[in-house]
Design brief:
Keywords: Hydrolase, Membrane, Transmembrane, Transmembrane helix
Order of helices and strands: HHHHHHHHHHH
Pfam family, one: PAP2
InterPro entries: PAP-like, PAP2/HPO, PAP2/HPO_sf
Membrane topology: Multi-pass membrane protein
Family: Belongs to the PA-phosphatase related phosphoesterase family.
Radius of gyration: 25 Å
Length: about 280
């Protein structure tokens, strides 16, 4: 689009949305100062959303201030995730006859816990930044990042609240509860009497649903939707190539989920539930 076309669009938008612009947006053009007209369309509530001012200096700060309530809500969700991780989950009854499916070996994670936020948050944000460097659209970067974080943290709250409420033992629960291999049960109730480390046992009651799976599907699922929009997936041009790009993040999320079953940290139902419950928040 030429500078003249940009200028004409800017004049049209300023007359519609009651905003002011200056010549630094249009290199090679003399300085202009367009007076704001009275806004007649009551449905227009936020001039920051208008494309003509998306790259103005200070737009990042103005966007943040305008969406301050959203960021406060996001901070609240993050605090809830921390609290839900601190409290002890429900200790579901585990009898001796149930141990047949809970005696898988206790082994390290193929995908470490620290890698989950990198996969679910930092990789998508890096791609958002790459699009920003190309388009210089600060509004798109802000909204994409905010939407991603909401999807991930809402999913985190739902996942951790469900983990704490259900208290399903992991497939390796026996070795968490009895690290020396000597099982001890209550003579009256038949429930386990664990003598392992508290933190390890606590984690052993958090099998359902899979947090690795839900977090990665939330972040990478959001990224897939973002890429589908940016690549104009359904515009009739290059469907196969675009589909490959769009579904790559979902494939990565699926592999993370499968690793949880291979590591014996989750039952297959946990992984399926983790992938399923994220769909409403991701969309």
């Amino acid at each position: 689009m030429t500078n003249a076309m940009k200028l004409r669009n800017a004049i049209r938008l300023t007359s519609m949305y009651n905003v002011r612009i200056h010549a630094f947006q249009f290199p090679g053009c003399c300085e202009i100062d367009i007076p704001a007209n009275t806004v007649s369309n009551e449905s227009v509530t936020d001039p920051l959303e208008i494309p003509v001012i998306r790259t103005l200096g200070g737009a990042t700060y103005e966007l943040f201030i305008f969406h301050i309530r959203d960021w406060v809500a996001l901070l609240t969700l993050a605090i809830l995730v921390l609290v839900l991780n601190i409290i002890d989950p429900f200790n579901r009854f585990v009898g001796e006859t149930m141990m047949g499916n809970l005696m898988y070996p206790l082994q390290p994670n193929t995908v470490p816990v620290a890698a989950v936020p990198v996969i679910a948050i930092f990789i998508p944000v890096a791609i958002f930044v790459a699009f920003f460097l190309y388009s210089k659209d600060i509004t798109d970067l802000h909204h994409a990042t905010l939407g991603l974080l909401f999807a991930v943290f809402i999913t985190g709250v739902i996942t951790d609240a469900t983990k704490d409420a259900v208290g399903r033992p992991r497939p390796d629960f026996f070795w968490r509860c009895f690290p020396d291999g000597i099982a001890v049960y209550n003579n009256s109730t038949g429930n386990v009497i664990c003598h392992g480390e508290h933190a390890v046992i606590k984690e052993g009651y958090k099998s359902f649903p899979s947090g690795h799976t839900s977090w990665t599907f939330a972040g990478l699922g959001f990224l897939s939707l973002y890429l589908a929009g940016k690549l104009q997936l359904f515009n009739g041009r290059g469907h196969v190539a675009k589909l490959a790009v769009v579904f790559t993040p979902l494939l990565a999320a699926m592999l993370v989920g499968l690793s949880r079953v291979d590591d014996y940290w989750h039952h297959w139902q946990d992984v399926f539930a983790g992938a399923f419950l994220v769909q409403p928040s991701g969309i």
